[in-house]
Design brief:
By secondary structure, the chain is of the alpha/beta class. The chain has 21 helices and 29 strands. Helix 2 (12-28) runs parallel beside helix 4 (78-110) and helix 12 (352-363) runs parallel beside helix 13.
């Protein structure tokens, strides 16, 4: 690697692994309720699975190449990066197993929640387990013996597999068999629930102790577990295909045959079995992550136990989404027109107003058309149901369904078909660009003419994730903003040339230039006595051109506060101490996934605020349709100020960069519980709702600008 640029930037994959370390730290944080710690164990595994399927697989595919340049002279040697990633993942997984096996599971057992081995079950529990095994599990098992007439099976991606070494009846030759633990049965089977607690047995443990039913007469010599991860980055050349939908469906059908990039196996698997398995999988050790696991494999399944509702003391206090202050207004169009613009902050405030807007539009005879982008929606989406109903009611419904939303491809294909069958116009985006912006527009005929209502968001139109992700939704009837959104849909659905936007900032057309301009403007106005100020809250910061401009701004005395949940390629330690002191980076990991994007620029006393869908990554700024939109309302600006201040003041769950790709810890920080930003924000919205209900109308606040909260 080239040394000097490597000091200026942090590699995106190494930064992501550090992010997942912070997730794992939450499993270690004893200030979290016990089942929430278990939940973070599952989140860590889910994250790592996705990382290996996409990013690790991508680097593995580059090993034969030389130095890979990313920005100017900065880049990476794929072989060195691959080795560093392997090393970090091995360390992380070992920590994960230690936290689970040495801390969390023993503490759960003390609280009467036990995952038992077969030998530790009582006779009554064994009787229950045998009944379940014979009646519910045995019928769906398919053992596959490997010999000349039974080749090694195609092992599914992320499936939990049993490797069995045995000598069949009336044979002297040792054989191997493979048995998949079916996903259609629970991973953890409840055997008892009484005043003595709850007892579970893992499905594979139950099956392992009844192999005699499957291999009658055989001598079972060994049974161990393994799991493979395949390269699931579906790369499609959109410019050379006739039908994206058909091509994507074909690619999804082939996913079971994609290359294995990771093998996890039980640490107690014998050398003989391991060699046999590696040989039959045909793995290249030089390009595969091979990881022994101590204890249970596939810890993503811990979501099952972490969701237990009968132990409320072991989980976070439930914070039900609050109704929006305008929730009881009968005419949502009138509310937006007369009280707007309106902002709702999920999951503190319910997602229901978005659904209500669509359902009202579907039934309102004055509504002529609905246009919407869909990136990720839930399995039984009220949003899509409302769009289908609108189409069947004769509305002109146009929907952009992003088929290439990774890991949601099949779900989106199904919804696209249902929408098309209902009569909606369904498009799949623009060749070469993912459509990631979140936009909804309702066109309505009113007394004064056609009125357009828009909803723009930082998050997806997904009622399920709206309870888990922090996002901001913005309702407006602003004619200029609506004109921009209308033009945006024309760009997406047709061949329209991007216009001169009134208010929207849209990538890949003008967003990068606009963001660089606003950063440079802060630097230009800034002095030591009157420093500029930038506050950015995003998921990821890895665009090296943007980072370079932020560095230059810090050298011009601009104070830069970055609230970056995940990947962060910027390191203040590449700068001289005086400039480095102007940059603060905070990452918040807590009960909700931080997802809202907020941009603030002090602009020499005339501050500008933007919300939108875009992170500061090359793909967001250069290869996706993304939007940022300005916020002019004094009341909403005041609310955004409070959100940003609260995040920066969080000492309980706010992780501060204190070294090169190093963050502070949250363990033993319970003394700062009163600064916990997500709880502070929930209480803020609850108090605001209470006051609103008392006054029966929103209060009139004064204009405020962002107040610095540095210590």
């Amino acid at each position: 690697m080239v040394k000097e640029p490597a000091d200026q930037f942090i590699n995106r994959d190494i930064s992501w692994l550090e992010f997942n370390t912070r997730v794992l730290d939450e499993a270690a944080d004893k200030g979290n309720p016990l089942l929430e710690r278990l939940n973070f164990i599952a989140i860590f595994s889910s994250n790592l699975d996705e990382f290996c399927m996409v990013r690790f697989a991508g680097i593995a595919g580059q090993l034969s190449r030389g130095f890979h340049k990313i920005y100017k002279n900065y880049g990476y040697d794929p072989q060195l990066l691959f080795e560093e990633m392997q090393h970090k993942i091995h360390q992380q997984v070992e920590r994960q197993c230690r936290y689970l096996n040495k801390e969390i599971l023993p503490e759960l057992e003390q609280r009467m929640i036990r995952i038992s081995s077969w030998n530790d079950l009582t006779s009554s529990q064994k009787s229950t387990a045998q009944r379940i095994m014979i009646s519910e599990i045995f019928p769906v098992l398919t053992p596959i013996g490997i010999d000349q007439s039974h080749p090694f099976p195609l092992v599914p991606n992320l499936g939990l597999e049993m490797l069995i070494r045995l000598i069949p009846d009336k044979s002297r030759t040792e054989r191997f068999a493979v048995l998949e633990v079916p996903t259609v049965i629970p991973r953890f089977i409840q055997l008892e629930s009484s005043e003595k607690g709850i007892v579970f047995i893992a499905a594979e443990e139950l099956i392992r102790n009844h192999l005699d039913i499957l291999f009658s007469g055989a001598e079972i010599r060994e049974c161990s577990l393994f799991r493979v991860t395949r390269d699931m980055d579906l790369a499609i050349d959109e410019e050379s295909i006739a039908d994206l939908l058909t091509e994507l469906q074909l690619a999804l059908k082939k996913k079971t045959k994609r290359n294995v990039v990771r093998l996890e196996y039980s640490a107690d698997m014998s050398v003989k079995s391991r060699k046999w398995l590696l040989s039959h999988l045909g793995l290249d050790r030089s390009s595969t992550l091979i990881q022994p696991i101590h204890g249970l494999l596939n810890l993503k399944s811990m979501f099952e136990l972490a969701s237990l509702k009968i132990f409320p003391a072991l989980r976070h206090e439930i914070l039900p989404p609050l109704p929006a202050p305008f929730a009881n207004d009968r005419d949502i169009f009138k509310t937006i027109r007369e009280k707007g613009p309106l902002l709702i902050h999920h999951p503190y405030v319910s997602f229901e107003p978005v659904v209500k807007l669509l359902e009202a539009a579907a039934e309102d005879p004055s509504v002529l058309a609905i246009k919407q982008t869909l990136y990720r929606v839930s399995g039984d989406s009220p949003v899509v149901h409302a769009l289908i109903r609108a189409a069947r009611n004769g509305k002109q419904v146009s929907v952009l369904v992003e088929l290439k939303a990774r890991f949601d491809e099949e779900n989106n294909i199904n919804w696209a078909r249902e929408l098309a069958d209902a009569g909606a116009h369904v498009v799949y985006g623009i060749a070469g660009l993912k459509v990631h912006c979140k936009a909804l527009m309702v066109i309505r005929r009113e007394e004064k003419g056609i009125c357009r209502y828009v909803h723009l968001s930082t998050g997806n139109y997904n009622d399920k994730t709206a309870r888990l992700y922090t996002d901001l939704g913005y309702f407006s009837a602003d004619p200029l903003l609506a004109q921009d959104v209308s033009a945006l849909f024309n760009v997406i659905t047709g061949f329209s040339v991007p216009p001169a936007w009134n208010k929207l900032i849209v990538s890949p057309f003008n967003m990068l230039d606009k963001i660089l301009f606003m950063i440079d403007r802060e630097a230009r106005y800034s002095t030591r006595e009157n420093p500029g100020h930038i506050v950015i809250k995003i998921n990821s910061l890895i665009d090296y051109e943007v980072i370079e401009h932020l560095y230059r701004a810090a050298e011009k005395h601009v104070r830069i506060d970055l609230i970056v949940r995940g990947i962060c390629g910027l390191t203040p330690y590449s700068l001289a101490p005086e400039a480095a002191a102007n940059i603060r980076i905070v990452s918040i990991l807590d009960r909700y996934l931080e997802h809202a994007r907020i941009y603030y620029f002090a602009n020499n006393g005339s501050p500008e605020y933007y919300l939108g869908s875009a992170d500061l990554m090359p793909r967001n700024l250069r290869r996706r349709i993304e939007t940022l939109f300005p916020v002019d309302s004094p009341l909403i600006r005041e609310e955004l100020d409070f959100i940003l201040q609260t995040a920066l003041a969080d000492k309980r769950k706010g992780r501060v960069v204190n070294g090169i790709n190093q963050y502070s810890k949250t363990d033993r920080m319970e003394a700062y519980e009163n600064t916990r930003s997500q709880i502070v924000l929930y209480n803020y919205y609850r108090e605001r709702l209470k006051k609103s209900m008392e006054k029966n109308s929103p209060g009139n606040g004064n204009i405020t600008v962002f107040r610095d909260v540095r210590n």
